């Protein structure tokens, strides 16, 4: 058990690199799906109903922004 701990302590840079790589790879799938969703959303905004919904959501977001500004 002590030899495994010693080996990990001596090779901490390797473990750090592996964990950073795993972290970045796990995030890349989420970012890809988010960008694909944004692309679909942009296609929907071009339609009349999509534009109306986008304007409504933008107005609600603006009202939330103004109300949050009043609190601080």
Tell me about this structure:
- The chain has one domain (2-71).
- The mean pLDDT is 88.
- The protein is mainly α and 72 residues long.
- Helices cover 93% and strands 0% of the residues.
- It has helices at 2-10, 12-45, 48-71.
List the keywords.
mainly alpha, 93% helix
The assembly state of the depicted protein chains is single chain
* Total number of domains: 1
SSE pattern: HHH
Morphology:
elongated
Write a brief structural summary.
With 72 residues, this protein is an all-alpha fold. It contains 3 helices and no strands. It has one domain.
Tell me the layout of helices and strands.
Layout: H1 2-10, H2 12-45, H3 48-71
